[in-house]
Amino acid sequence: MSFSILLFATFAFFVDFQSGYDPRDLSLEYLLMERLAIRGVLDRNGLSTRPIPERSWNEKLRLAVPRTEFDSAALRALSKATDFEEFALKMPIRLHGYLAVRDTVHRHEIYSHLYGTAMLRLRTVSLFHKSAIFNRRMSNWHDLPFYDPLVDPDFRLVCFEDKPVVGERETFEVRTDRAYIHIELPFGDLEVGRDEPRFGPGFRSAVAFSGYSQPMEYIYNLRVRNRWLTFVTFNAFASDTIKWKRVSAQRLELNFWRLTVGFTESVVYNSSDPFKYFNPLGLYYITQRRGESNTDNLMGGMDISLFVGQKLKVYGELLDDDIIITRSHPSPSKYGLMLGFHAVDPFGLRNSDLIFEFTHVARFTYAHVYSDYANTPEIVGYPFVFWGGPNVDCISLDIFKFWGPENGIRLGFEFLRHGDDGMHSGYQSDIDIPPNRPNFDRIFTVRTVFFGDFKGVKAELGAEISRLTGELRDGWRFAFRFDIVPMAPTVSFDKLLPHLQGGKVTSTP
């Protein structure tokens, strides 16, 4: 039996792109990749289409030429993120949660996770599965509404079932984060199964695909790439309570000298015809116009990233969900806009990053004019578009200071203004107050986060203070958040296979 037939890996073929501290952020690995791309160390093609395949990831690292000592350390850290033990099974444990005081109301929420990852690999074909069991301890269950992303973004750990897995008491809960088949192709890769997309150049905001919702079930996710372009198209089922809810998308990303331009088209539909948008190269706009009705929710847009020298990336993203430019049109213009910049070592402060983003999503955006929940871009109540929903303005400013590529401090400021409309507020909708309407009008948040890898123990510890104003909630909130992943035991299976040498039991981060 060849050693390539059986391979249990400690990391996925696709690197996770969400922060454990806050699922709205990109991970530290992607932040380092963006920094190195701005500095001209890494090839930036495909960085705005995430997750990035491991093969493409390793190609970028192998061809990178560091300019400073910190660049070299960052490249080593990124290489370690995709390194794995052959014939190994990893069971990491994660502690995650927060302690909060809101006015006179004390609230806490603490999770403990036990992850299991496994991969079976045969040459260019791989099977990956990542599931977890977790335990939650919390107070004041009814203190927060179901949809309140700024106050309680840890929705991934919420149990959507009324009855626990075992018995009548909530002893533990289970979930599958990722489960897919991945096939390497000479021109790209193909994925089938459960995963989550994120498109666009933003660190904290994305108006088309943010990766914020529950994962999608891909029928296919095809990626084609070369030096100058990346083309991604997928057709997926939404793991929702609505039958036949599906999502299709196409993205073309072009990489020029100092400019990256991406074009995205997507559609959310509930048609009984499962092959309506199955063609990976068909234009959804034409397919929709030839359909029997206008119930499909079609959206499109583009994003641009301009790299200035080796210090700055200026970027923007525009989503078109019916942009109206004539005054005679009865319905409002529906669009989303995000603008930002990422500065490396600003003001001469070495090993630091400054990221600013402004996001505006107009009223009635995302909800189709004739929608009845079936065609909104969300999964189980959480948007896979901009996490704040429509009728919103958001400003964020983040400063990172690194003591090493895996250690540092983050200072952040965020302001969000939210109107009365939610994801289901269509222009001709009969819904007056959507069930997922945020219960605040404005929120100001200041946060401090320490992050690091301490002898194999990865941790993010932070504190934040928020001021909420609104009709339904008004007051101050202080919270302490933590995300800790201790050193995970990794068991190698070399000894179980007589023809292989060097079996061992190790502990790796």
Polypeptide structure, described:
The chain is built from four helices and 25 strands. The chain has helices at residues 28-38, 54-63, 69-81, 284-289, and strands at residues 49-50, 88-90, 93-102, 105-122, 125-138, 173-185, 188-195, 198-199, 216-225, 229-238, 246-255, 259-269, 297-308, 312-320, 335-344, 352-361, 378-379, 382-383, 392-404, 407-418, 442-454, 457-469, 475-485, 488-492, 505-508. The strands form four sheets. It has an 18-stranded antiparallel barrel. A hairpin with a 3-residue loop joins strand 9 and strand 10 (229-238). Helix 1 crosses helix 3. It is globular and about 60 Å long.
Poorly predicted runs of 5 or more residues: 1-13, 141-158, 432-436, 497-509
Radius of gyration: 23 Å
Following the backbone from N to C, one meets helices and strands in this order, namely HEHHEEEEEEEEEEEHEEEEEEEEEEEEE
- Strand percentage lies at 35-45%
Classify the helix fraction into a percent range. under 10%
Give the number of DSSP strands: 25
The span between the termini is: 29 Å
Average pLDDT, all residues: 79
Structural class: mainly beta
Q: Please give the count of helices.
A: 4
User: What spatial form do the alpha-carbon principal axes imply?
Assistant: globular
Task: Give a short account of the largest sheet.
Answer: 18 strands, antiparallel, barrel
